[in-house]
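Review form for a predicted model. The reviewer records the input and the model, then writes brief findings.
Reviewer: anonymous (R2)
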Amino acid sequence: MLAASVVALTACGANDNGGAASSGAPSESAAASPSSSGAASPSGSEEASPPASDASPPASDEPSASAPSASSGSSGTKTDVPGKSSDSSGDDPADIATVAEPESVTVLVNKQNKLPDDYDPSDLVYPDVRFTFTEKIEKREMRKVAADALEKLFAAADKDDVPLAGVSAYRSFARQKSLFEAYVKKDGLEKARTYSAYPGTSEHETGLAIDVSGSDGKCAATDCFAGTKEAKWLAEHSYEYGFIIRYPEGKEDITGYKYEPWHLRYVGLDAAKEMHDKDVTLEEYTNALAVSGSAGG
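Model under review:
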């Protein structure tokens, strides 16, 4: 059984620029404020400015490591499955397992499972879609398979008169490390862990995840995005293009993070359809694979 008691936190984390989202929590999306034309004028800055010391856990892309652990999805077994390594508590960096197959599109990256320190996706490209900023910088990139699928998803949304925009996609291990170390230097390790992720444990480092908003950039990576026509469209149609809502509503005790209707994760068409049809998270899906592999072995 999956663990059933965690503090619901945001998974998308502290703002690279230390800005505050409309909800009052720091968000990386604050780096790009929409202009009157609907496109955003980015600050251009990627300096790591930790959030204010009294800031609440942010609504952006860095998972907190401070909460009691959610299940890693292994049901206590040590069976390796694609993109998944053995179960771990995640309470200490030394206890976080390194995934066996980081390039798998169904790789599970969370507080218990991290990417290798030297993982650097070799197929990063710039998806040909709108973003809330104009510059071709790191957080606009995605792995090609995810970028191709994203282009189809955005085109379908346009046809349904629900134009979308990307907010933040890829983030390198080096960038995550720089951010986390800056936060630790400012607030100490214990507090930094309440709003930032250990390097290697942010889904954005896979190159398969992206935060999206409406084309006007309003409510980007903030709670007010929930209930918008864009959020509803994504919930209904993302799986048709190989994406899942990575941190769904009502699954906080499994993912360890609060509902994030803006955070899409590419897992492939078959996996996305199965997770949608069964209403399961990536943790639950991975757990089922592990149990099936154990039984079959």
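Findings: The first strand starts at residue 32 and ends at 34.
Further findings: Confidence is low (pLDDT under 50) at residues 1-8, 14-90.
Recommendation: see findings above.
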